[in-house]
Amino acid sequence: xxxxxxxxxxxxxxxxxxxxxxxxxxxxxxxxxxxxxxxxxxxxxxxxxxxxxxxxxxxxxxxxxxxxxxxxxxxxxxxxxxxxxxxxxxxxxxxxxxxxxxxxxxxxxxxxxxxxxxxxxxxxxxxxxxxxxxxxxxxxxxxxxxxxxxxxxxxxxxxxxxxxxx
Amino acid sequence: xxxxxxxxxxxxxxxxxxxxxxxxxxxxxxxxxxxxxxxxxxxxxxxxxxxxxxxxxxxxxxxxxxxxxxxxxxxxxxxxxxxxxxxxxxxxxxxxxxxxxxxxxxxxxxxxxxxxxxxxxxxxxxxxxxxxxxxxxxxxxxxxxxxxxxxxxxxxxxxxxxxxxx
DNA sequence: TATTGTTATACTCTATAACTATA
DNA sequence: TATAGTTATAGAGTATAACAATA
Lengths: 166, 166
Description:
2 copies of one chain form a homodimer.
Chain A: H1 10-38, H2 42-53, E1 58-60, H3 61-68, H4 72-84, E2 88-92, E3 100-104, H5 106-128, H6 133-152
Antiparallel strand pairs in A: 1-3, 2-3
Helix pairs in contact in A: 1-5
The first copy, chain A, binds a DNA duplex (23 and 23 nucleotides) through helix 4.
């Protein structure tokens, strides 16, 4: 429990604040666009996008939850919402009777495609406009490293609970 | 309403996803630390921090709201929570009878100082560890530009409502 | 026994609209 | 009339714990 450590340098603070504020503003803007054009929250969109990326438009609940941080019950809630709207369907897995496979419906795929255009446009407009190619490259590189590190580092007191590999 | 636009390049997608994921993970980690060590949500911490930064530890409701995006009512809620915990006090302004000034109490200042240490430590551990000085500089520069742009660009359909300058 | 997922429940947060009061 | 702020209210989202079923 390090009770003290060197105070952060101004440029470190600037970088930290910038990440937080940009992340917040970006999420806010994107969330609004998704709601207006597709009636989706950002997380619902992320779930659809994750399904759209995967091989046959289907994934297990647990794998989605792992990827999108959610608590299990939170994911159950969101998937229920999507299912109620007919955007996804729940199927039982033939391999493992315990697991539930979530599959994109044609309607879900259609909506995803439709919303994605505006999504990309929004991101381009508010995020990429002030950046040149080199900025984009550097940003992806640096933040990519941060992301990998964050994924690897356990959230401190958490994580060392029950996990398979652990 | 641009129905189509060139698809984003892979490096653009990488940069965008990295910003979003890093922002999310960072906020999540920070939020957890703040809750554990101070019983504060991230937004409550931000309010306290904003007050701590300002000249005499006090600011108007509206100025806080403008800075932290919140709706007015949302800010009223959060400040009420903080006031109920004795961390801030509401005062009426002598200059403008309509406005409410929020002031950090000694207890609030003490908590802020106490929590800040862990906050900085957390950010350092999960965010700055994989970065060298140049990374930090570049990140602050690039994201700083993005932030300034996002602040300037209206959220599309919003904003052009009632604003003084408008 | 561990894992997958759901349910019940309670809580936090946010936004909208209506309202009061001051400028 | 515009601004500052509150309140009521309703809805979305989240987390925890208890639970059932399968591996």
